[in-house]
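Reminder to self: tokens first, then the designed residues, so the page reads top to bottom the way the pipeline ran.
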């Protein structure tokens, strides 16, 4: 079925009644959500809300105590290799080691070669895919630069290019805007939009600052161990709902018909 029929599925992600607990601490409490193919969804919530844990459950890296997950109709625990071949995952940048000296092109080639059997020797086609991914995020001119020498925003775009080089059907981004300059934020958003328009690739983004992407979103999910609210930004962004999620007063302003939340939270 597998890779041929998955794209016939209506939903890229289906999470139903998922519970995750570490010892007696419940991290996700009966979480349910659906994400249609090709959509752009942001997950917001305070530190410790379970946002990164949810991404790990979606990828099949963490088994829930209760509930089910389907990615393009497949169980990520039973079909882990197939599911992960469909996903481009970008972790939080501070979790990526800078100790090993590597060029930008070498980082991106890691994504291209991830599913190939040893010996993983890149061919011309691999380099073409890597350069195409770098061009998508606007940094193909930096291909020969050491990754550690780049700015934070440039590093983030390299990691996104590495995920894109796998030709994913779904992107999972964990705090890609954290510590990123405005120009890089714009390039990231442009890349997400291009992938959606031209290839039908959906994006699920964990973020603490939704404002740079708010006008591009199909839906926002407000998470604090459970789903507090979900819907279009103007439906979710009201001070009462945000205060419930964050436990403190959150201001919401409206500008040119769009709602923006003034959230001082950081990643987590």
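Designed residues (268 positions):
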């Amino acid at each position: 079925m597998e890779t041929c029929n998955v794209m016939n599925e209506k939903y890229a992600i289906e999470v139903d009644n998922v519970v995750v607990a570490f010892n007696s601490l419940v991290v996700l409490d009966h979480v349910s959500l659906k994400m249609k193919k090709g959509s752009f969804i942001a997950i917001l919530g305070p530190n410790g809300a379970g946002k990164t844990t949810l991404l790990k459950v979606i990828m099949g890296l963490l088994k829930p105590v209760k509930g089910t997950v389907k990615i393009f109709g497949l169980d990520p625990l039973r079909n882990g290799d197939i599911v992960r071949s469909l996903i481009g995952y970008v972790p939080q940048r501070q979790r990526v080691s800078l100790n090993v000296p590597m060029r930008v092109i070498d980082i991106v080639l890691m994504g291209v070669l991830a599913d190939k059997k040893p010996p993983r020797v890149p061919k011309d086609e691999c380099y073409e895919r890597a350069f195409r991914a770098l061009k998508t995020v606007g940094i193909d001119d930096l291909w020969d630069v050491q990754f550690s020498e780049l700015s934070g925003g440039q590093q983030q775009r390299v990691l996104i290019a590495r995920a894109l080089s796998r030709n994913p059907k779904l992107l999972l981004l964990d705090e890609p805007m954290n510590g990123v300059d405005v120009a890089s934020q714009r390039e990231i958003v442009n890349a997400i939009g291009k992938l959606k328009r031209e290839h039908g690739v959906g994006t699920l983004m964990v973020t603490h600052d939704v404002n740079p992407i708010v006008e591009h979103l199909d839906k926002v999910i407000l998470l604090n161990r459970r789903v507090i609210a979900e819907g279009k930004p103007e439906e979710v962004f009201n001070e009462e709902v945000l205060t419930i999620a964050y436990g403190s007063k959150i201001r919401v302003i409206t500008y040119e018909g769009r709602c923006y939340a003034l959230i001082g939270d950081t990643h987590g």
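The longest helix spans residues 182-199.
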